[in-house]
# Entry
Amino acid sequence: MIVPIGHPPRAAQGDDAELIVRSLAEPEAFAELYDRHAGGLHRYVLRRLGAGLAEDVVGETFLIAFQQRHRYDTSRSEARPWLYGIAANLISRHRRSELRAYRALARTGVDPVAQSWSDTVDTQVAAAASGAALAAALRGLNDRDRHVLLLIAWADFSYEEVAAALAIPLGTVRSRLNRARTKMRAALGGVNPTLTDDDAQETDRG
# Structure
């Protein structure tokens, strides 16, 4: 079922929900879901945990998803929030590894992970994420706030998608994000490099 990351995608056959339903009778069809989403998920986990854990977490995410596919809410055509929610739980199990990486970056200013993803993200965010100040700021967040912040900043999720991924109300997403940004701005001297263009517009309106 699991294929290497970067495997050429199969021909698309319906949305994610349709694919998951079909996989109940045809388990091999679930590999298409992997083809669609493993690359992006791997890049996200890589940024959180580094190369040493990324492939294991992605593999375990899809294994859990396969085992629990009968419980998937088929009213949601897009499975990405579901998959990233599973990954978030797994990332939390490696909290010490994530915090250790932030601590090392904050101390040395050298990011061993940044070169692995810097070509695929916004230049401003990539540059800031290579800095000791941002690492220290991220380390200062609790797990729940960090998940919300980074799903929006690094996985390009909407507030609604974050709510679905983490199984929390939309209002909780907003409150956690506001708390995280307040702490980030304080740690970075008033600058928040994780603010997206859409978020900036919303802030201006508010």
About this structure: Residues 1-12, 112-126, 200-206 have pLDDT under 50 and may be disordered.
